[in-house]
# Entry
Amino acid sequence: MIFEDRDRGRRTNIEFRPFSRGDGYSFRRCLEDFYGGGYPYREYLEEEFLLEKCNSGNMLILCGITSGGEIVSTSAVRLDEEFKGSALLLLRVVKAAYRGMGIGKVQEEKLFEYVEQQTHLLSVYADVMTHNCVSQGSLARRGFVHCGLRLMLYRNSIMVPGLRLAEEGKMSQAVMCRRGAIQDVGLLHCPAEHAREVSRIYQQLGAECGIDRDSILPCREKTDISWKKEELHHSCIMMVESAGRDFSKLLHCKMKETDDWNDVTVLCYLNMKDEAAVSAYELLRKAGFFFTGLKPLQIKKEYMLLSHTGRQQIRYQDIHLHEEGADLLSYIHAHQLPES
# Structure
């Protein structure tokens, strides 16, 4: 397929095909063209890891390749292991020298041909960088909804050293989601102060939900939790599947692990299908967490996002959301500070 750069009088023939053995070096160079050495998920730069994912049927990687064999664009969809029933769009990159030619648009069309065949999925989502809103706009036109922010997880100077962003700042991601084969998520345990905003997001997605605002103490003894630290970026991701009677003590211990990081960011995924979610939310608020949206529509779990940014300044001027996400960003900004 021929693509033209009229400003520079250049024509390029691009073939779109799945990632295959021998593509590893050129694929890595394509990602590094944008991220430099900052891409945080290092395994996705390894050929054998990618081939294993693709051969298992859990992932499709599409590459745009010139007649000379150079990979100039990539995109992928992964049937998510962490969020069962969801598919994640990722690795969406076009090399700088080939942007503005329409390559990304055609590649996205071809990737979505595959996505549309996955009729069993409850949702398709993407965690989209917020340094600009171009990628968000293309997803919004495909029916994706701004659901949340993964706030300030990655250092600008490491993740995207080539961009003119504050060196001391951290980059955020917009969580965008499109509903699949689900129409009603059932009862959610959600604090009263956010019930209207949660309902609004599910309504935008076209999914029904019920809201229980009651604060119920945990019945189980042990909390079901995972905790992942990104040492390089001074950030952590905590997933609370169900809160137990030990949650307060456990939360305190986990946060103590970050005491040496003045610029720590902690992102919490709180499962609203857990009956004790509201009481867990109250403990998180007291610990300095605040609402940053949702990660919705997966099997048996619906997550509220909560962020802790400590003493860091939140540079809202660096967070660019497509116009469809303006209401969500305003809401997050207004509810940033925890109750005293």
